[in-house]
Every structure is written in C-alpha cells, then in structure tokens.
Amino acid sequence: MTATDSADLVSIPALLARNVREFGDKAAYREKEFGIWQSWTWSEAVEQIEALALGLLSLGANRGDHIAIAGRNRPYLYWSMLAAQSIGAVPVPIYQDAVGDEIAYVLDHCNARFIVAGDQEQVDKILDIRADLKNLEHIIYLDARGLRKYDHSILSQFHKLQDLGRAAKATLGPELVARQAGQNYDDICVMLYTSGTTGRPKGVVLSNRNVIETSKNSSQFDNLGPNEEVLAYLPMAWVGDYTFSMGQALWTGFCVNCPESPETMMTDLREIGPTYYFAPPRVFENQLTNVMIRMEDAGRLKQWMFHKSMAHAKTVGPALLSGLPVSFMDRVKYWLGDKFIYGPLKNTLGLSRVRVGYTAGEAIGPELFDFYRSLGINLKQLYGQTEATVYVTIQPDGEVRADTVGVPAPGVEVRIGDNGEIYYRSPGVFVEYYNNPESTASTKDKEGWVATGDAGFFEEGSGHLRIIDRAKDVGKMADGRLFAPKYVENKLKFFPNILEAVVFGNDREFCTAFINIDLNAVGNWAERNNIAYGGYQELSQHPEVLDMIQAHIEETNLSIADDSMLSGCQVNRFLVLHKELDADDGEMTRTRKVRRRIVEEKFSDLITGLYDGSERVATTTEVTYEDGRKGSISATLELRDAAIVAVQRMAAE
Amino acid sequence: MFDQPESFVTADGRTIGGVMMEMKNITLRFGGVVAIKDISFDIREGEIRAIIGPNGAGKSSMLNVISGFYNPQDGEVWYKGERRPSMKPFEVARQGIARTFQNIALFEGMSVLDNVMTGRLNHMNAGIVSQAFWYGKAQREETENREVVERVIDFLEIQHIRKTPVSRLPYGLKKRVELARALAADPKLLLLDEPMAGMNVEEKEDMSRFILDVNDEFGTTIALIEHDMSVVMDISDRVVVMDYGKKIGDGTPHDVRNNQAVIDAYLGVSHD
Fold first, then answer.
1. A34 contacts B154? CB cut-off 8 A
2. Are the Cβ atoms of A145 and B12 closer than 8 angstroms?
3. Residue A4: what pLDDT?
4. Of B153, B159, B198, which Cα lies nearest the Cα of B179?
5. What percent of chain A has pLDDT over 70?
6. Which range marks the domain in which residue B38 is found?
7. Mean pLDDT estimate for chain B
8. Does the beta-carbon distance from B217 to A35 stay under 8 Å?
9. Which end of chain B is less enclosed by CB atoms within 10 A, N or C?
10. Which domains does chain A have, with CATH numbers?
C-alpha cells in the first residue's frame, strides 16, 4: 500500500472502494446456507451494500440517523452496517439475545428511525415495544419466515428493499455518491452500547479515526494480510466483533465467514479453518471440556497415547512456540506427538491453521492457556475496552504468559493512577458517550486519558501489565484485610466443574461464595458414576456434587493461603446455586460478566444464611424465560463450611 | 365460515379452500372389534384439522384409513373430488399425502440428511444404471432433491445434526426429523400422528410453532392427532372428537370445548 493511497482511506466507503479496486475478485464474505458455503467477492458485496444503501435513501434516511441492527452474524447484517455508513448514517448493532426492556432502552436512547432485524424473533420483540418508540419508522427484516401475515405498513423485506434501491439508482445514485464522498476522518463511524456491568448501558461513539487507526495499528502488529480467514460468531454488538469482522477486515481485505447457525459453530470452524481467531476463555474452556469428555470414553491405548503426548507437550510446547532453546530429543518427541496427537487434535478443534489467536474479556486459567499453547497454537492475550476500540495492551509474539495481559498496544499510552487504577490514551479513545456528557467527563479527562475502572500494575522487569480486579470491587474485609473477589472467582472457575462463582466478603468477617456448576462437565461425571438426576436443580444439590465442589474450594483456599496479601479471601462457607446465573434475569451482562450488586440483592436471603450459620435455606427465585415471560423456581439449598488454612493467625502469634 | 363451500380468508390472513378430502360413513372392523363406527368428516384445503380423543378412541386407525394403510369395510374416501379406490400406502404417497408416526419410524443407523432424503424418493426416477454410476440424470436429480431437502433442514432448524446418525438423537429431535422427512416429500396433505407425544412444554411449543409455520409458509393442509387438548385447541382450525370409535363432536375449538359430550368423554360422567 502506498502512502498516498492510505492517506485517502479516511472513511468506511473509501475503504470499500479501495477493496473493490485491489481485491475485487477475492472472497470478502462467506456464509454457510442450505449446507453449502455461499460466498461473495468484494465487488459483489459492494453491489449488495449499495443496493441496500439506495433502499435506505428511498425510505428517507438522513445523515447522522441511527440505524439499529439486531440478529446473529450474517453477511447481510454486516452489509446493513456498511450500507448505513455509506449514506452517512450511524449503525448501532444491538445484542440479539437482549430482552424487550433492554432493546427498548437502547432504541429509545439512540432514537433509532430504522431497524434491520434478522428474523421473526427480533421483529416480534421490536413490535412488542413499538408504542414506546416514537422515532421508529421502519423495520427491515431478513428472514421472511412467519412474517407473511404481519402488517407490512412499517415492515420491508431486506431483498425487496434492495430491489427498490436498485430501481431508484437513476434518481438516488448521485445522492449516494455525495454521501459516500462527504465523510472525513472525525465523522462518527459506529455506536456500540457497553454491556453495562453496572447500571444502564452507555452508547460509546467511535469515529472513523478510532476504528481505522486502531485497525491499521493492530493489523500491522500481527502482520494480518488479505488472505486471513476469520469466523464471525461473537455478538455483532460487541466491540471485538466490530473491530475484527469490520475494522480489520475492511483495512486488510480479509474474508469474514459466518456460521450456518449458532449450533453449527464448531463444525463450521473446522470447515473454514481460520488463520486469525478470537474467542473468550469460556469458548476455549468448552472445547477443552469436550475433548476431555470424549477422551474419557476412548480406548486404553488412545488414552495412554493422549496423556503421554500431552505431558510432553506441556513441558516443551510453550517453549518451542516462544522460540526458546529446546533439546534435540525433545524436539523429535514433540514432532512425533504432533504427527499422532497434536495435529489431529488441532484439526478436530478447527485450529490447525490458526496463526494468531486471541483471548480476552475474562482472565484465562493458566492450565487452559498452556494446553492450547502446548499444542502449538499461538494463543495470546489482550486487554481492552469498548471505549478504547478494543486495544489497551497486547502480548507480542514470544512474550506470552498466562498471568499478564501484555505491553501497551501500538499507539497506546498506559499509566497507573495513585489508587492503582489503569489509565490509557490512544488514537482509539472514544469520542463520547452518546447523550451523556456527565459520564463522558467522569471517564475521559481533558487530555484524553481514560479511566478503565480496573486496578493493576506493571510487572518489574518485563514491563507487562497485570490486572488485579475491577477497581471498585477491590475492598476491605471487616478486619482490614484486602478483599479481591475476582481473584478468587477466577481461581475457582479454572475447575471444569465450576461454571461461575461469586465471592462475597466486603466489610465482612470472612468470605463466602455462590457456585454455579457446569452442567456439561458435572452431568458427564454423574453419568459415569451412575448418579441419577432430573435436572439442573437436582444435580446441583446432590450431596456428592456438593462434596466435589467442597474439595475444589478447599484446594483453592490452599493456594490462596500462599499469597500473604490475599489470604483473607479464603472461602469459609459456600452454597451451590439452584439456577444458572443468566443475562435474561439481569444477573449477568450479555457478555457473561456477573453483575455483583444485582446478585447480592436478588439472593440476599442466601447471603444472610451464609453468614448466620444456617445449614439449610429455602428460597424462591424469579426467572425470565427467553420469550420474556416470568416464572419462579423454589429450592432448599444446603449451606456448607469449607476448611481454610489459618495463615493469618500464625502471622499474628 | 366452515359451512360455506367456497374458499374464505381467516382472521389471521390464511386462505382456507374447498373440501380436499372427505370421509363418508367410514366403518373399520378388526374381526369382532369395531375400531371406527360410521364416521364422516371432511378436511379443507389449507386448514389445520385435528382429531382428538381419549386413548383407544380410534384416532390412529382413522389416520391409517386416510393414509391408505387400512381399508375400511364400509364407507367411502373422497380425495380431490374423486372417490379413492382401495390403495397401497405408496400409491397414496404419490398422491401427495405424507405422514409421521406415533412411535417414530426413522432409519436409526442413517444420518439425518439421508433420512430426510428418503422423503424425496417419489421424486426420483433415474434408472438403476444411472444411479449406480451416479451419472447424468441421477446426479442431476440428486442435486435438485438435495436442495429441496436443505431448505427443509433450514426451515426446521436442524442444520447442526445434519450428519448425525438418528440413533444418537434425543426424542424431541427425532420427532422433528420425522417431520422433515414428511415435508421433504412436498405433500399437499400432511398427516401427523401425535407429533407432541412425550415432549416437555418447551418442545411442544417449538413443535406447535413449526406446524403453524409449515401451514403458513407452504400452505400445506395438515391433519393431526393429539390427545393433549390445550395444544390442539391453540393451533387447529377445526377439531373432530372421537370416543370409542364414534364421532362425538366436530367444529371449531371453541364449539368443541363447550360440547357436553366432549366434556363428558374427557372428564368422565357419573352413571347414577
């Protein structure tokens, strides 16, 4: 790319035009439909995008309008965002699994005039709240199934609108060209709502500069080229998906592949074999759990080979990947292991071709991380935020570790505040929170430094950043010892049987915990041990399951006790929750982060039980079903004590 | 509305046509046992017609008469304005009638895809040589039929189990695969034998949704048997109620719900 060339690339339409010029005949989008991978080149995609853009113009869409997009990852919906950007409107992707209230808040907050909805489910949700949305004018839907009988006065089918647009090309074409050309580097590119661990979601406004500079820097950092393949399966409303599947894809011209349905993701992953892959820790964890479950059913010889090879991989795999010296014999053994075990395993996981893989969003367990690295998969960590257009820190090749999140990303400055909070400044720093000057001012100062709300420190020597916890979650216990719940929760979550943990103890005498079991892992264990159960609730309260969880907690306490600063965080009492924490019930964010305060309020009776020493508590909890209806479940939970290591007292003596 | 012979449009925008199939005074006996006793009713084009009744009422026998598996001793079956002679089930299938079974009759060892492909059997007529070498017509036909099948798979949202052997599937999904196979035949009339038996509430809701969508999307006429009253009342246009081989009610769900004979059959009646 020449310097003059890249200087013109200041808007999304400019990038699209460049891609048609340079990679016109190369695949830009693929989607598996009707059992076959359908694909579109950059030229074909742009024709589709322009047809829709003209259709939107014919509906009267203006510059600066917010156009909401709701649905699973499909090329058509990515094109909807690009069509909106082509006419100078601002796309607002929303979480497809959000319930009515949440969607109502977002749509009302951004005054969306138009919505592109994936299917009947999304249309129904919007029609239910239509009375509250004064500005809503038109809904464009993709999948017509079940929608034939609906009142079409405010509904249009996606392809029909495109046909309208194509027919109006003669009259609206010049307007489209003018809109595409009249965009500069500081115009608004996209608005993404934060998942909101606390309170209402906030609309993060990102400019062309934010998105394009960040995509440029990060693509150079990892040497991403036009021949990369990615699988787009994470929520479109999430900044990560926007950056990987839109920003970087547009910048480098690589191909975005959409799975056939959420359930087929693993099969599709294997068929595509991405070269650049991103997944939150829970996806890697699920994959590993599945492998382990299937290995338990394998024959003796295979099990022996697997365990023998994996043990060897663990000792030398990460070193090989980081380019450290490894003895000749170990290299030969690793080569053999690769032929028999690691290669086929990577192929099964769909990760054979991964050149760069990232995990972020949550802390990843060191064993989980090392498992993938030891197979020879270049899995790295990054630390980021919506407000930073993802990148704050990132791990360079050869400096990868499980317990840090790397060094500041290219173009990013990072400093640590007096209270340990992490601040950053970069070209990716967001413009503002939409219609919320107070929050903007309290997050971003005049010089452009943004407060992350996370506490951390730079490790001496390596210069890598380590995250301790959310700054506001770090507290003190009643006797003044440090309380860092996430540190403990992450340790607990590293056990495959534990899906989620919530630790309490701020201003208390001792720490307690709620545990969610992992139905897959524990269910499989129950099957192998002939333990009958009727459902999640029954399994979660089974005495043997409680014994198992207790053992996990005691093991965790032992390792926490090693750290003199955090030894007060050992879990004294615990219970296993009778329901899974769920975003539909408001207990988690859509990106699956626990909303601590809401959990505390909702289960206050259980917390009281944990601290007053009761052995059983009967409780009733309200649950929300996927279609928005409410119901309730009741259960009697057993509260248990866990053994702790008495470090503190020894220190006092 | 169902009294008038012409077609009409329902409140939710579907078109109900004229009479497609008419059963006239059907009586079916197995030796001394009278399974169906002098029953008459009709099925109109585009409607969802339910046959309900307690266990042993003769519902499945009735469905087997419609599908041509049983030939009644007395009575006439009229299909598309013509009296249907006694037929073999495969001949009935060629007339555009497909069905599912109460206790699932899939090929357990075959994949979902292959099972659904068998539903296209009546649409394949390439010769044995062409099929053996998978050349010419056979190849063309398979591609065409596969496309139809893929659309059905997409419609019923079973892409994720496309290559899974049926024996490994849970019950609810097997039922859906059976529906897929019946749909692949591109039927005019679809017969469903207890499509929701043994399902939990959520699975029942999904299945109801699929049945309504099939009717809506393809305009397929559907006759179904069920003994869960609440589900049937929600999705069907008209209901026939049977008890001990006799018809004791016929009409819209509202009529049937208020019919004393039906209430007695379901709730029992005191004999004093």
1. yes
2. no
3. 43
4. B153
5. 97
6. 8-96+187-267
7. 86
8. no
9. C
10. 3-278 (3.40.50.12780), 475-652 (3.30.300.30)
Structure tokens, A169: 């090309």
Contact A261 B159 (CB under 8 A): yes
DSSP A38-69: EEEEHHHHHHHHHHHHHHHHHTTPPTT-EEEE
Q: Which residues of A479-493 are buried (b: 16+ CB within 10 A; e: fewer)?
A: eebbbbbbbbbbbbb
Position B206 in a domain = yes
Residues 6+ apart with CB under 8 A from A405: A360, A381, A382, A383, A393, A394, A395, A464, A465, A466, A467
Percent of chain B with pLDDT over 90: 35
- For residues B92 and B197, membership in a common domain is answered with yes
Residue B57 has pLDDT above 90, yes or no: no
Number of neighbours of residue A263 by Cβ within 10 angstroms: 14
Supply the DSSP string of B50-110, one letter for each residue.
EEE-STTSSHHHHHHHHTTSS--SEEEEEETTEEPPP--HHHHHHTTEEE--TT----TTS
Domain boundary, last residue among B179, B214, B234: B179
Q: What is the mean pLDDT of residues B211-215?
A: 91
Reduce the DSSP state of residue A460 to 3 states and report it. coil
ipTM confidence score: 0.75
Any CB–CB contact under 8 A between B213 and chain A?
yes
**Residues in chain A closer than 8 A to B147 (CB atoms):** 34
pLDDT tens profile A477-520:
888 777 888 888 888 887 888 989 999 988 888 999 999 998 88
Say which amino acid occupies B272: D
**DSSP assigned state of A636:** E
Question: What is d(CA A369, CA A355) in angstroms, rounded to the nearest whole number?
Answer: 16
Instruction: Report, in angstroms and rounded to the nearest whole number, the Rg of chain B calculated over CA atoms.
Output: 19
Structure tokens given for A590: 């859509």
Amino acid A67: pLDDT: 95
Does one domain contain both B83 and B191?
yes
3-state secondary structure of A503: strand
Name A620's Cβ contacts closer than 8 Å, sequence gap at least 6: A632, A633, A634
- Comparing B41 with A653, the larger pLDDT belongs to B41
Q: Does A589 touch chain B (CB under 8 A)?
A: no
Which residue, among B193, B247, B248, has the nearest Cα to B223 in the 3D structure? B193
With an 8 Å Cβ cutoff, is A124 touching chain B?
A: no
Across A571-579, average pLDDT = 91
Rounded distance, CA A8 to CA A184, Å? Answer: 10
CATH number at B20 reads 3.40.50.300
CB-based burial of residue A153 (10 Å sphere; 0-12 exposed, 13-18 middle, 19+ buried)? exposed
From residue A494, how far is each of A168, A220, A528 by CA, in Å?
57, 33, 22
Last residue of a domain, one of B159, B179, B199: B179
CA–CA distance, B225 with B60 (Å, rounded to integer) = 7
- Phi and psi at A635, nearest 5°, equal -160, 160
In a domain, B222, yes or no: yes
Q: What is the pTM of this model?
A: 0.81
Residues from chain A that touch B154, judged by Cβ atoms under 8 A, are 33-34
Give the closest of A35, A146, A148 to B150, CB-based. Answer: A35
Q: Answer whether residue B105 is part of any domain.
A: no
State the DSSP H helix or E strand holding residue B226, giving kind and residue range, or none if neither.
strand B221-226
Residue A7 corresponds to which tokens in the numbers above?
A: 């200087």
Asked if the structure places residue B1 within a domain, the reply is: no
A5-22 average pLDDT score = 87
The total domain count for chain B is: 2
Judge contact between A194 and A201, C-beta under 8 A.
Answer: yes
- Judged by phi (left if over 0) then psi (alpha if -120 to 50, else beta), residue A592 lies in left
Contacts of B217 in chain A (CB under 8 A): 145-146, 148
Q: What is the pLDDT of residues A224-271, one digit of tens each?
A: 999 999 999 999 999 999 999 999 999 999 999 999 998 899 889 999
